[in-house]
Amino acid sequence: MKHKDFVIQKLFPFWNVDFITTWYWIKVTKTGSTVLDIMSEHKKTYEILILGKCKHTEMKDVSDEKIDSNTEEEHTKNDICKNMKCKENLSEKISSKSLDGICNERTILPASLNNDNLPLEMTMMSVPSSIHSMKIPLQDIMKPYLPETPNCLEIFARNLTPGWCCYGNEVFKHQHMDYFEVFTKDT
């Protein structure tokens, strides 16, 4: 859980984001059993979703500041995403070392999250896609808690989500032509 702790204790405060809650996605088979032993130390049968909300619309200039990520090497956040902005409310930089090796954690930073109706505890269960590393789509799950046109950032993303800013080292992975069928006018 060191990445979860990093996001909640260091990244969120640095980005002026309030931590709201953590939800869980449990991967199950078609018969309802967990895909792996829930106590497995090697690989987890669940993924976590960390929810946070931006505190305000003004973001400080952090182009040359560094995050202490307790790793061997600190990176200037500008190294990863130069001036990455999603509308007005979202942070613009991230420590590249904090992304290394992360495959089980996703973070959503909705600018206008409706905390009043948001369940503080949620466990989702679904059969994972047969495509390796394909995550469950979150826009429908989050829709009741977001404004009509939300400003959302998903970090550690593995897919593009329409209308959201998605950041991760494999965000375009499932956009490759191998995942689509080509149709011609004759088809």
UniProtKB/TrEMBL annotation:
<dbReference type="GO" id="GO:0008168">
    <property type="term" value="F:methyltransferase activity"/>
</dbReference>
<protein>
    <submittedName>
        <fullName>Uncharacterized protein</fullName>
    </submittedName>
</protein>
<dbReference type="Pfam" id="PF05063">
    <property type="entry name" value="MT-A70"/>
</dbReference>
<dbReference type="InterPro" id="IPR007757">
    <property type="entry name" value="MT-A70-like"/>
</dbReference>
<dbReference type="GO" id="GO:0005634">
    <property type="term" value="C:nucleus"/>
</dbReference>
<comment type="similarity">
    <text>Belongs to the MT-A70-like family.</text>
</comment>
